[in-house]
Amino acid sequence: LRAQRPNAPFLELVHRLDRETSGLLVIAKKRAVLTALHRALRDGEVDKTYIALVCRRWLAPARRIDLALHKYTTAEGERRVSVRADGKPAVTRVRLMRRWENFTLLEVKLETGRTHQIRVHLAHTGFPICGDDKYGDFALNRTLRSVGLKRMFLHAAALSFRTPASGELLHLQAPLPDDLARFLAALDANERCDHAAAV
Fold first, then answer.
1. Which residue among 9, 89, 121, 140 sits deepest, i.e. has the most Cβ atoms within 10 Å of its Cβ?
2. Would residue 43 show up in a list of annotated catalytic residues for this protein?
């Protein structure tokens, strides 16, 4: 982005996404905006919504996952996160969107923004994200790759926050990218969908 916009003297990431996560990413063009949005994120004033496809059938219409997370580095130097009582507080809210026989589409909202929070919370509760190469079901991931899901099914679908300058409430949305939408269409064609769960 900096190379494409040589006249923009300041471009900085307001937040991050994991490498394979698609969707919305906010970039600040002024330091004052960056600082204000960082404060808003810390104070829980930014509403972030993700869509995740998980393995197995999720039954609850809604659930709040409150599990502390601990960040560590493996012997190979890889960053990992685990659920641990002495970790940092982490809260994830989950809502059922659609359900098939072996998969579930979830809407996920973050109350906190810890590293790998959604991935670890869902995996720990027995519903790993499809295609997750760190915390997922590795045997199933190999099968999913062979039928078209080449990456983790996690998408940053919506963001809401007040602009620092005017206080105007912004609602931003990003539709599912083509590869993830195609995979859902293939699920519809091959698995029975529980339309009673669809929202």
1. 121
2. no
Which residues sit opposite 82 in a β-bridge? 70
pTM value is 0.90
Asked whether 140 and 149 are in contact (CB, 8 A), the reply is no
d(CA 51, CA 138): 20
User: How far apart are the C-alpha atoms of 139 and 143, rounded to whole Å?
Assistant: 7
- Residue type present at position 96: L
Q: Active-site residue among 18, 178, 179, 188?
A: 18
Q: What does the block give as tokens for 195?
A: 């339309």
Segment 53-82 shows an average pLDDT of 94
Residues 76-113 have pLDDT tens digits of 988 899 999 999 999 999 999 999 999 999 999 999 88
CA angle in degrees (0–180, nearest 5) for 169-14-162: 10
E strands present in 33-141:
47-55, 62-66, 69-73, 79-83, 91-100, 103-110
Task: Look up residue 99 and give its two tokens.
Answer: 């359900």
3-state SS assignment for residue 171:
strand
CB 24 within 8 A of CB 176: no
Cα–Cα nearest to 119, from 70, 111, 127: 127
